[in-house]
Amino acid sequence: SESLQVGELAKKLNKETSEIIKKLMGLGIMATINQELDKEAIELIAADYDVEVEEEIIIDETEFENYEVVDDEKDMQVRPPVVTIMGHVDHGKTTLLDAIRNTKVTAGEAGGITQHIGAYQITNNGKVITFLDTPGHAAFTTMRARGAQVTDITILVVAADDGVMPQTVEAINHAKAAEVPIIVAVNKMDKEAANPDRVMQELTEHGLVSEAWGGDTIFVNVSAIKGDGIDDLLEMINLVSEVEELKANPNRTAIGTVIEAQLDKGRGSVATLLVQSGTLKVGDPIVVGHTFGRVRAMVNDLGRRVKSVGPSTPVEITGLNDVPQAGDQFMVFADEKKARQVGESRSKKQQDAQRKESSKLNLDDLFNQI
Ligand code: GTP
Ligand code: MG
């Protein structure tokens, strides 16, 4: 804050209010105890006591925490759904996403295991869908634990020959806790041992009852490898997303969440962001978690340079002073000075917290040695 009352200043300096009032009078300022002092007056008095004034920047953290920024209903426009594919190891998450994209991510991955969260967009019948490919459920869990809600729909992949496994159940629990609708993709239908009825039966025990059995969970039989059932699955995603009435205001400064981030030798800090509301533009002053900067360049999921992206769009940005974490929220500011202030304040807070944590650890180590 830029101003302080006389009484408050006296308290901060550990002096009598009357003494401060006298000093102010000496400076030609007639003041009462409740008088607001401007920055200049505060600095003059402080200098007189040999005290350095450190400006305290008050950051409205609720701006960050309160994700559901209230927008006028008339500004809201339909946005693409953000879909997360979850399921047990090897049940075919990446292969399914490949089938959807018609590309070969699996072939390029080391050992065929998902190394990072990819975020991609496809268009089906003129409607855009955003997909997140998660390595297991770690990313989903980390993001949720950090207060970020990025997923609109979960595709639960269950291999028809393997059935419900521990991570299938975990995925169901995550989706339920986040109140995200689930579409079940019964995969590997091409296999001889495929038994979709068994999958339905097992999922019933976890509260997912197929529409065919009088429940309200959508089941789609697919073969990711053969490409069977993919169109049906996409159709169902469009249907669920219509029911959910997903909307955002594209005409505001962008907010959203970090999907992944790393340090790149050539480009510095590189972060994949999911814009959740507003439009993100090159040149925007931005705070991302405890990092900040100006959006230097943006690259979309096809590796193409873009100048601006709207809601539900994943984009890779450069220009941050440091590497943020997955699940961090980002926010664009009207001017760079404000972004820097907020960024530096958050960075300092984070460092303080880390220092506290490490000194605690040191003490613990000490006690353990005794
Ligand atoms: P993680 O990322 O390690 O959790 O695995 P994932 O769920 O992404 O599975 P992935 O797509 O890597 O597939 C695992 C194995 O199952 C691979 O050998 C795939 O070729 C195979 N697979 C995936 N979908 C199908 C399918 O529809 N039919 C058959 N027969 N095999 C499939
Ligand atoms: Mg995978």
From TrEMBL:
Swiss-Prot/TrEMBL keywords: Cytoplasm, GTP-binding, Initiation factor, Nucleotide-binding, Protein biosynthesis
Highest taxon of the lineage: Bacteria
Entry's localization field: Cytoplasm
Region span, Disordered: 339-359
Alphabetized GO MF terms: translation initiation factor activity
Domain Tr-type G intervals: 78-247
Functional description taken from the UniProt entry: One of the essential components for the initiation of protein synthesis. Protects formylmethionyl-tRNA from spontaneous hydrolysis and promotes its binding to the 30S ribosomal subunits. Also involved in the hydrolysis of GTP during the formation of the 70S ribosomal complex.
Record protein name field: Translation initiation factor IF-2
Source organism of the structure: Fictibacillus barbaricus
Region of the whole protein represented: 188 to 557 of 764
